[in-house]
Design goal:
six-stranded parallel β-sheet, 10 helices, globular, binds 2'-monophosphoadenosine-5'-diphosphate
């Protein structure tokens, strides 16, 4: 019987993972399938049981399970422990383990774009995605300021990821945010503001006056490809990075943990892009 993999979350909405993961399994001729598995909180333990019993071979994990799942596993890899979140469940040394592939995927995006580590970074957000991004930015050696609607959430993220360091946090409506933002060569958005289907699809998370020429703006939102924040960055003369590569990179690293095989990255990127473009055309 084919191995079954899937992504668990709730609500799952429209996820691209089944398309590009299935493309990867097929490209390598592996007898496996990948499905979206909507899983409300009360169904989480049963999903893990299914993995332990072999009915599922491995999982991607998304909101709202990334933290709670830790207690159901046999252990977590150091990156997942440090980021306080698991996005991949896999078997390693006979144990059911959790890893966070968002962190290396995030680093991979910045490496591929050749962003120098001395660039000051403004990190927008304070949720789970912001924690992974903060961890990756600090690992790369960036000086980071976080900006979030609820500053206390960003402070909590900072204390979880870099305990002992003084949190650099501003509110999104702080009067000195624009001046601080303009000193940052790298701006990263990890909030859902600007996401199609999200709470504020036509807004940018930043107020006026934050963006200047020469900045690189990385939005982890991938739908639409050009978010309102990225559109504003282009107008200001900045360079834009959308969220699709990060999505595929984290999935490719999950694939490698499950299969022990090198992920066919080009195949996965093409499948994800085609699906996204087909979705944008049909809207
Ligand atoms: P994730 O795990 O994907 O990061 P999350 O934990 O729900 O998801 O975090 C969502 C992020 O988007 C948070 O930074 C949230 O800000 P708060 O900490 O103030 O809640 C941010 N966010 C969501 N809706 C927002 C909005 N309308 N305006 C500004 N920020 C918003």
């Amino acid at each position: 019987m084919a191995d079954l993999y899937g992504v668990i979350g709730y609500p799952l909405g429209h996820t691209l993972s089944p398309v590009f993961q299935q493309a990867a399994f097929d490209a390598l001729g592996l007898d496996a399938s990948y499905q979206a598995l909507p899983t409300p909180p009360e169904g989480l333990a049963a999903r893990i049981e299914a993995v332990r019993e072999g009915r599922l071979a491995g999982l991607n994990v998304t909101i709202p399970h990334k933290t709670r799942i830790v207690e159901l596993l046999d252990g977590t890899r150091p990156t997942a422990a440090a980021a306080g979140a698991v996005n991949t469940v896999f078997w390693g040394d006979g144990k059911l383990l959790g890893e966070n592939t968002d962190v290396p995927a995030f680093r991979q995006v910045l490496d591929a774009a050749a962003i120098p580590a001395h660039e000051r970074a403004l990190l927008i957000g304070g949720g789970g995605a912001a924690r992974a991004a903060l961890y990756a930015l600090l690992q790369r050696g960036h000086e980071v300021t976080m900006a979030n609607r609820t500053p206390a959430n960003a402070v909590a993220a900072w204390e979880a990821v870099a305990p002992g360091e003084w949190p650099q946090v501003l509110a999104l409506d702080a009067p000195d945010l624009p001046a601080t933002a303009r000193t940052c060569g790298l701006i990263v958005n990890t909030t859902s503001v600007g996401m199609a289907g999200g709470p504020e699809p036509t807004s940018s998370p930043l107020p006026e006056g934050c963006l200047t020429a020469g900045q690189t703006v990385f939005d982890i939102v991938y739908r639409p490809a050009v978010t309102p924040l990225l559109a504003a960055a282009l107008v200001a003369g900045g360079r834009c990075i959308g969220g699709l590569e990060m999505l595929v990179f984290q999935g490719a690293l999950s694939f490698e943990l499950w299969t022990g095989r090198k992920a066919p990255l080009d195949v996965m990127l093409r499948a994800a892009r085609d699906e996204l473009e087909a979705g944008e055309r049909s809207r």
